[in-house]
Structure formats: structure tokens, C-alpha cells
Amino acid sequence: MLLCCRLQYDGALLQRAGAASLPARREKAERIRSVRGRAASLAAGLLLRHGLFLCGLGEDQIRTGPEGKPFLAGNPAFVSLSHSGDYAACAIAPVPVGVDIQRIVPVSARAVRRFCTAGELAWLERQPDPRRAAIALWTLKESYLKASGELTEAVFAAEFQIGTGDEAAGPGGWRFSIDSRIEGYLLALCEKD
Length: 193
Hints:
By secondary structure, the protein is α+β, with helices and mostly antiparallel strands.
């Protein structure tokens, strides 16, 4: 299940969202200084609560790992959260899953060289919109990082391919997809085969 929402920055709405949030998510949001950051964190948590309800899973199973990543006790399902700009996303699946949403913004050449392989860099040079293509690679790698639990260096070294219709491929044993329906954003999903 994939859920996505657009954020609102109304103070009263944020207070209600905080009150409706699970304690760990509320505490995390309270540590964030910016209104946008708090809204994004709360929205991702509320999507998780709603998704669990739709899947018939209890929110009492939600735990938070040492790195802050949510998981469900007993692994009845796997969850992943993401937020960027004005959107938040949540994925829930019976297999390891990772979701990443990113606003399409300029990325420095230095950053791109850091997270892309030589083959991906060559592919980027041939793209009509290298900025969008770089964000697509980044979202794929982030979704893979979240789903696989691999170290960042291993994820950056993994080779990804993106087709003409946003079809995507990456390391074996995983399914990848990119969604570009939200204008100005890309959303990538990674699931274990």
C-alpha cells in the first residue's frame, strides 16, 4: 500500500495532527524547528497510522529503531516513510519496502558524482533533463537504502537503470518503480521480490 498527501501549514491543523500522532512521532516532530519540517514529520506519521488501519494492523505494534526508522513488532508488515517539500509518503508491504519522495531541485555536480556510478554518470550526460534524471536516481537509491538496510556506500555503488516510461531496475532481488504524477516531484518505491 502506498499513501501520499500534500502538507498544510495551518497552526490549528498542526496542533490537531500532533495530538493525533503516536507519541514517538510527536516527540520527533517537536524536536524539529521549522514549521514545514514538523508538518512533514507529523504527516508521514499520520499516513502510517491510516495505512495500518486500512491494512487491519494495530498501531500498538509500531516500534522505532535506534536510527529512528519505524517498524512493526513481529514483522507482520514492513513500513517506510518519506517527505520532501510539500508532500509526505508512506509505504506498507508484506515484504521489505522503501519509499522516497523528492522535489525536483538542482543538485550539485559534486553530489551527483558522489552517489552515481560511472555508468549512471554517462547515462545522465545523455538525458534531456539531467536534473530530473539525477533526482530519479537519488530517489531510487534512497528507496533501496530504506528497504534493504544496506550501507550508504553499497547503495551508492549499486547500478540503477531508468527506462523511457519511468521503468526502473536496480540490484537483483528487488522491484523498483518511479512515479512522476505529482508535478515537480518524483516518488520511488523499492520492494523485495
